[in-house]
Amino acid sequence: MNIRILHWKDDKAATNISNNLKEIGLGNICVQSPKSLLFTTQKELEGFVKDCNKIDYFIVASTHRSETAKLALTVHPTGNFGKSDLGGNLGELSKTWSAGMKIGLQYYARHSPEGFDITMEATHHGPTDWEKPLMFIEIGSTEKEWIRKDLGILAANAIKEIVEKAPKAKFENYAGFGGIHYCPSFNKIQIENEKAAIGHIVPKYAEDAITEDIVKQALEKSFAKKAIIDWKGIKSVAREKVVAALENLGIEYFKTGNFEKINNLI
């Protein structure tokens, strides 16, 4: 598999991570972006990534910001349900790498520093139009954490694990629906389940944007043929729209509450 790790030169966490990637021998697959990758289009990507069409997966090293400034190590897919003021196109989700996010999150969980939340985030922000799958892996949530050497080493080693293991992984991919942005129900499955890898997550707060097209994109761009719903983490009206779309598309779905019990029988 041909993988590239992208980092924006003005992103302090990304610079920290890329410096440590070079120290562990992955500098040859790191590429520096001239602008924020949230706002980078496919055409612009082709301008600075050599043989862009030959790359199989992109990993974007990035800062994580939150209003509460809580300590966090995160992974997530990209895409927009409502506004597109943080890059990408309105109503468009990117192709994403479910196995990469799962393995990165599992590594973070096994090596978690004290006091940090280890979490997958629901799908958000750009880019959305890249032709190949991508994922973000992040350090958060303030400059103090972005520049910490030990966190840069941790993220670099998580990426190394993704590069070495994700291309050969044999997980079954799922798209997730419902829950809050930091999706604890999906985190549990992503970290603990041996079979399932979760790609796009359409959260509760995106309920007004849920259409059959969004449901279809979440599945197709996660390379998933099944779905998981956080049944209690989504309002009934939105849940009914998700279920109707899944049934119309012929997609089998599970509830987070009984996923482990059912999945162990599959």
Features:
globular; 2 domains; 4-stranded parallel β-sheet; 266 residues; Aminopeptidase; 10 strands; Rossmann fold; 6-stranded mixed β-sheet; alpha/beta
What does this structure look like?
The structure is a single chain. With 266 residues, the chain is of the alpha/beta class. It has two domains: 1-169, Aminopeptidase; 172-266, AF0625-like (Rossmann fold, 3-Layer(aba) Sandwich), CATH 3.40.50.10700. Helices cover 34% and strands 21% of the residues. The protein is built from nine helices and ten strands. It has helices at residues 12-23, 42-48, 98-110, 143-146, 149-165, 184-192, 212-220, 236-249, 259-263, and strands at 3-8, 30-33, 57-64, 72-76, 117-120, 134-140, 172-177, 196-202, 226-229, 252-255. Helix 3 (98-110) crosses helix 6.
Entry summary:
The model has no long low-confidence stretch (mean pLDDT 96). The protein has helices at residues 12-23, 42-48, 98-110, 143-146, 149-165, 184-192, 212-220, 236-249, 259-263, and strands spanning 3-8, 30-33, 57-64, 72-76, 117-120, 134-140, 172-177, 196-202, 226-229, 252-255. The chain has nine helices and ten strands.
Distance between the termini: 29 Å
- Would you give the CATH topology of the largest domain? Aminopeptidase
The tally of strands reads 10
Can you give the helix content as a percent range? 25-40%
Strand percent estimate: 15-25%
CATH domain class name of the largest domain: Alpha Beta
How big is the Rg?
17 Å
The CATH architecture of the largest domain would be 3-Layer(aba) Sandwich
- List the secondary-structure elements in sequence, H or E: EHEHEEHEEHHEHEHEHEH
User: Which structural category fits the helices and strands?
Assistant: alpha/beta
Low-confidence stretches: none
Mean pLDDT figure: 96
Q: Estimate nothing, just give the exact number of structural domains.
A: 2
Major sheet details: 6 strands, mixed
Shape: globular
Fourth-level CATH superfamily of the largest domain: AF0625-like
* Count of helical regions: 9
Major beta sheet, strand line-up: 2-1-3-6-4-5
